[in-house]
Specification:
It is found in: Cytoplasm. This protein is an alpha+beta fold and 325 residues long. The protein contains twelve helices and 13 strands. Helix 2 packs across helix 12. The longest helix is centred in the N-terminal third of the chain and has 17 residues. The radius of gyration is 20 Å and the shape is globular.
């Protein structure tokens, strides 16, 4: 990938790097934002930090950014709410639009969309305080996974190995969300596929395989330890790798994602069948993050990856009328 020229950098204008925020993933977002900001500055881009957790939308409008790079994760940054505000303010932004972010942030609706398109995803049940947990355990089988459907970075996720552990797992997830997702556990290899672009031009980067200590790829093992092993490109038969990438790109497209994203996949041990877990519309950009890792495997540096994503920034809602004040 060619380096950006000074003229091209100037043409991108004043750039805001939006990071921090108010979600449970604030700490990760601070790291992502710092990395993105440093990368853009190193390419001569007029980039400025903007912590949406500490500053207001009025301040964002007053900055008069020509475009923004969204390095936020979780609620209020990855769920469509900020994207809607940016559409209102007329500020082009990186990543997916309002609808794709809102659906992608909700693991339940993501599953519904994928199943409607015939894409494979583990069996699931939506739980509330009156749910018959014993019945759900019988239907999905044990072990199973319990998670808050609107959180990321493995926050609030519990693997339930016995029926008497189900209630405690439900309580952990319910403390973080107004609904709870129970999902059949798929035994197999944990893969993730980073994707760049939109529509017919969306393309998968090399697959990453994640091997976490004792199979526990939790928040700590994602971001703050070096115990998790990553293999990129994942060692897969070429035809199987191509199929995993195809399904991931189709999953990305069906949600209407664009710019960049990541789709997590489990490859079932018994028959090598891939199952879609979730989509990330604003993936991590930290030193441990998987999209930069996949990009490096294709010869794209972290800095050039950030520039490519920034170049794709745009307003997604067509038909706005200019109002003269």
């Amino acid at each position: 990938m060619n380096h950006i020229t000074p003229t091209e950098a100037q043409a991108l204008g004043k750039v805001g790097v939006l990071f921090g925020g108010r979600s449970a993933e604030r700490e990760v977002s601070l790291m992502s934002g710092a990395g993105v900001l440093k990368a853009l500055l190193s390419r001569g881009i007029d980039a400025h930090p903007f912590d949406t957790g500490l500053r207001t939308l009025a301040e964002l409008a007053a900055e008069k950014f020509d475009r923004v790079f969204i390095a936020l994760h979780g609620r209020f940054g990855e769920d469509g709410s900020l994207q809607g505000a940016l559409e209102q303010l007329g500020i082009p932004y990186t990543g997916s639009g309002v609808m794709a972010c809102a659906v992608g942030m909700d693991k339940i609706y993501t599953k519904i969309v994928w199943l409607m398109h015939g894409l494979p995803t583990p069996k699931y049940a939506v739980l509330d305080s009156g749910a018959d947990l014993a019945k759900v355990a019988a239907e999905l089988g044990l072990p199973l996974i319990v998670k808050p459907p609107h959180e990321g970075s493995s926050i609030g996720i519990t693997k339930v190995g016995a029926a008497d552990e189900f209630q405690a797992a439900y309580d952990i997830a319910a403390a973080l969300d107004d609904s709870v997702l129970a999902e059949a556990f798929v035994t197999g290899r944990e893969l993730t596929v980073a994707i760049l672009g939109r529509g017919a031009d969306a393309r998968a980067l090399p697959i990453v395989e994640i091997v976490a200590p004792k199979g526990n790829y939790d928040y700590q093992n994602k971001y703050f330890t070096d115990d998790t092993q990553y293999f990129c490109p994942a060692v897969l038969e070429p035809a199987l790798a191509a199929e995993v990438q195809r399904i991931a790109v189709e999953a990305y497209r069906t949600l209407g994602c664009e710019g960049w994203g990541r789709v997590d996949v489990l490859l079932r041990e018994s028959d090598q069948k891939p199952f879609l877990l979730e989509a990330n519309t604003s993936p991590g950009m930290t030193s441990h993050s998987l999209v930069p890792m996949a990009a490096r495997a294709e010869g794209i540096s972290y800095e050039d990856l950030c520039v490519e994503i920034l170049r794709s920034a745009r307003l997604k809602m067509a038909g706005a009328v200019k109002v003269e004040g």
